[in-house]
Amino acid sequence: MQRVKQELLQRLEREHLVLDVGCGTGKLAEDLGEPLHCVGLDASREMLRVAMSRGHKHLVQGDVQSLPFPHGAFNAVLARNLLKHTGNPEHAVSEMLRVTRASGFTLILESCVQDNIDKAFMEMISNHLEPFQGGSLICREILSLAERSGRVEASFPLTSGVVASPDYVMRQYGVRRDRALEFCRLMKEAPDAVATNRRIVVQNDCTVRFDLRWIAVFVTPST
Q1: How far does Cα 34 stand from its chain's mean position?
Q2: Rounded CA gap, 173 and 51, in Å?
Q3: pTM of the full predicted structure?
Q4: pLDDT at 134 > cutoff 60
Q5: Which CATH architecture has domain 2-113+133-159+214-220?
Q6: Distance (Å, whole) CA 37 – CA 141
Q7: Which residues make beta-bridge pairs with 39?
Q8: Predicted confidence (pLDDT) per residue in 71-122, tens digit
Q9: What are the structural domain ranges in the chain?
């Protein structure tokens, strides 16, 4: 993710007002490591409580489908791994661009899948760990909806490696050990196409290494 951080910091200035949509615990703002004027928005009151406990002060409870801000309120709008949790990803992108200034940008940073085979497998894995968390989006679908909603300035794929031990899965998803072990079993039984694409490597009976695919898209308002 270093490339995304570098690109962001090149575009942002200290006086810029930034909106972090789906901020969760506020980790994205922390990762930037800059004294930016950042407003965090999340639908979950519990997530906002955690963000507040970590020192984040400017927090708003709200829905990306109807952002409680006027047109052009922010220099930059950031959303990490948000779209797959929305009922209407294209409308969500349009709303983020609505509150983005004409001279600003929206960053979509989303984990994604390669094709329909990869999508079916990862949705099965996701539903096993986190039921009702929404479907996966194919990388090219994310780029297409951004192009329909605004003007794409830059986009690039990213890959991050994950070493999924039972302890990691339990911490990451808040599941019991038996579910974490089942996750490892499912990953080991992935179809050949998925195993090749995600470079799945079985390290031992309980630990699997694999790649997560991401796409970063910088979009500006079209008008």
Answers
A1: 20
A2: 18
A3: 0.86
A4: no
A5: 3-Layer(aba) Sandwich (3.40)
A6: 31
A7: 19
A8: 999 999 999 989 988 889 999 999 999 999 999 999 999 988 888 888 888 8
A9: 2-113+133-159+214-220
